[in-house]
Structures are given as C-alpha cells and as structure tokens.
Amino acid sequence: MASEEVIKVEDVHLEENLEGEKEEKEELVCPFSLKLLKDIKEYQNLHGLKHDDFQRYRQYCTRRLNRLYKGLKFLHGSKKFSNKKITPELFVKDIRYMYIILIRAERAWAYAMDLKQFANTEPRKQVHLIHKLKKAVLYAAELEKNCVTLKCDTTTQLEAKAYHHYMAGMLLFEQTHWQRAVISLTAAQKIYNKLAEAVEDGALYREKHAEMSPKVQYCLYNIQSSGGLGAAPPGEEGLMEELDSIIASKATAVAASTVREVKWEGKCFTISDDEVKIQLVQMEDNIQLATGCSDADQRLELYEEIISSCRDISQKLRKSNVPEDPATDYFNYLRITITIERFLAMAKQVTDKLSGVVETRPGTKVARPEDLVRLYDIILQNYADLRDIPSLDRDGDIYEGIDVNTKFYRTKRCFYIAECHLAQSNWLNAIVLYDKCKEHITDTTAAANATKVRNLQGLKDDLQALDKQIHSQRCSAHASAFLQTQLVDTDMKEIVAADKEKLLSDNLDEFKLYTKADDLPTIAKLPPDFRTIPCKPLFFDISLNHIEFPDLDERIEKEASGLSSFTKWIWGR
Questions:
Q1: Which of 260, 282, 255 lies closest to 270 in space, CA to CA?
Q2: Of 47, 147, 318, 500, which has the fewest Cβ atoms less than 10 A away?
C-alpha cells in the first residue's frame, strides 16, 4: 500500500511538472527571465530533499531530463549514442533547453551528495564524488555563460553566477582547498545577500545565504588552524558594481512608481507610463553625475546615455500621443540641449590641447583650429533645431537665450576660422576675419545686455577674454603681413630690369621685373627677318651614257641543227 501511494504521488508530480513545462514555454519573453533558485527549491522540496533523500532527487532529475528530451525532440539516438550540444540558437526557440542544463547540474550534484554518505567508509566513493561535482561545476558554468550570451535580465545573470560560485565552492570544499572554497562560497553569499535586498521577496536568498554559513565557518577554521589568514576574497569589484546596479534599479523603480508631473514653458503634463518614468529617473541621475564629473571621457559617456534615453522616451511618447504633444517637445528640447553640452565638452578638450593646458598623448590626433570650426558648426545647427520646436514660446526667456547663444558661438566660429587662415600665413584674410569677430562681439554684447535672461555673466566674461585674444592675434597677423611686404620689397630691388632689345625666348631662364607696360619684353618680330638657307641639291644620273660595255657575243652558245638535233629529240635529250 505504501508503494502504491508513492506511485500515485509521483504521478501527480509528473502531471504538475508537465503543466509547469508548458507554462515555462508560454511565459518566454525577451530578455529572458528565469527564477533559478525558486525553481531549484521547489524541485528539491517536492522530491526527497526535505528528508535528505538525495537518491530520490537524483532519480527525479533523470526522469525530468528524459521528459524534456522527448518534449523537445532532443534525442540522442536509439541504437548508437550521439552527443548533441545545446547551442544559443536553441534557447531562442524554447527556454526549456536552459532547464536541461540546470537539471543536469542538479543531477550531478545530487549524485555527489548521495555518494558523500558512504565516502567515510569507502575511499573510492570520495573519488567518484569529486568527479560528479566537477561535472556539476561544468554545467553551472555553461548555464552562467548562456545567461550572459542571451542577455538575460540582470537578476537571472546574478543568480546563475551565484549558482556557479556555490557549485565551485562545494567542489573545493570536498577537495579541502579551504582558501579557494572560502572565496567561492563568500562570493555566492554576497550575491544572494544583495539580491535579498534588491527584490521584494528575498526570503529564499536569505535562506540560501544561511545554508552556506556553516561551510564558510568551517573553511575559515581550517585556514586559521593551518596558520593562514581568512582574508576577504580579492577581485570582487566588478561583482559588487553589478549588485549595486540591481539595488539602484530597485530604488529607481520605487521612485518611478509615483506620478510624475513636468512643468515647462508654462505647460504642465503628467507621465503615466512606468517605463518612461523609470527612464526619466535614470536620466535625471545621469544629468547630476555629468554635472559633478571631473573626468572628461566619463562625462561624454554620461551625455551619450542621456541623449539615448531622451531619444527612446520621445519615440515611446510619439507612438502613444500626438506628435504635437508638449511632452514630446520637452524631451526633444532636453535631447538637443544635452547634445549641445556634449559638443561643448568636446570643444573644451580641443581648446585645452591647442592652448597647451593638456598635453597631446603620443598616438592621438593633434588638435587643429579646423576641428573647433567643425564643432561650432554642429552646435549652431543644434541651436537652429531648437528654434523649430513648436511648443517654444517665441517671446520667452528660452528663445531669447537661444538667440544670444547663437550669436556667441557664431563669434567663436569666426575667430577659429581666422586662426585657420593665420596658421596658413594668409595674413590679410586673418585680419579681415578678426575685424569681423569684433563686430560679432559688439552685437552679442548688446543682445546679452538687452535680454532678461539670467546666468549670462559667464558668457559676457568669455566675450571680454575673446576680445583681448582677438586684439593680440590681430596685432600678430598685422606685424607678420608688414614683415612679409618688407621682405618682398627687398627681393624686388635685387631684380634687374628687363632688356627690351632681347626676345623673350632668349632669356627664359632669368626672372625680370616689368614695372611698366612699355617695358614688356619683345615676344617676336613681325614680319620676321629674312635669313639665308641652303638649297636642296638636285642629282641627275648621266654617267650611264658614257660607259662602254664589253662585247659578250663569243660567250653565247649557238643553237645546233640537222641530224644531231633529231637524234637528241628521239632520246629525249
């Protein structure tokens, strides 16, 4: 009777597991999200581990694997075994392939724990135990690798990482490598502890943390007994950063749960989409970090993240609302202003390199004034895009600030164009552009004084500094231009005047100075002078008429006649 009850219970669990597998397949989303520790605890509690029956749990894992193989048609051959590998492409088709790796690791671990009960009396069991734990570690590492490859959510990746650390710690514990076992088990404890703080229901994580504590204490005891030091595991900075990001995302979600109300340009609108609210909170945090960041490269990365968030939010709002919605215009305004700040930070880097404040590292691009001209062109284009935002008040402070900043950066652009001409020794062009910069400074100062926009004192100070710099550079260009004219006059005095009597073709290898039109050289004389040329001789062959040839008649053979000729005819001669 007892055996029949066990069979019935197993059948009930079989039906539940089959239904659970169907639900797991239906709940597949992207990015993948798995509750590894929760599923493992359910499998263990339902199939023998409440009573430390590792053999029963191992048998359940074997049956579960067979059901997964048949359900997924992932068979290994009927007559001859063929080892099929699970590739990332299979996970995209069905998430149950991930559970195959998990159940394999659990089966190997359960087999090892079952052998441990007999390892004290049979030494060979200890060797078999370590072999099974090594297989469990390999499967756990494969599970973690696939979670990273498939870009599962951060909680799933950290659970897989903790599971891998736990399996590695158990293997090292059985191999009596106490120091390395402490490192692995402590890393798993840290992950579970942080996850318990990050999620709402963290009881399972705290329970798993407490489960590993006796083993950690035993390892520390053995380390101290052998004269070692139980130091904290090194190299966990990246792990702690990931855990802190989980807690930060939780705080972001809590902050985004409240209704967000935004006021801009006299308009008030609310944001009800939870995803948009989360992105908005993250974007505001990045803006604060960028404001206080001293590292230029890190600030540029934060600006890129903010711009990307603004672009994503605008696209989501554009799909849900009408294009003329003020919320869409607000995030477009934020995106463009952050883009301008990003290019200004890049211009600051180039300016520091040009002025020598920052040394140019070997192998990097040398800063040139042309780079600043290009950056200020992009900044002016962004200010032009700001003007086109429909919700902006044409009489408001923001619009007036756009006008003032446009004039200011047009002045900066003109100044660096003059610097480009100065670097190419085009002194006159540089002087003209410096004078044009003076006019721009006057217009920009007048516009800044006339507007009601605040916080323009820094702009006015920059204009004054730029005015002094323009005066200095213009004097330098004027002096260089004067020096060049003096050198040209000196060179001209040494040049000999042209000789009008000579033809131009006779003195092509000499440079002559032609100061007047009458001194121009003679190219050719028309009509040209006559010159004597030899006549072509005529040859007539008249010597033949005076040559007497010899008489050759004696040498000519005379023709035969008569009987002899007839005889020759007969004989064919």
A1: 260
A2: 500
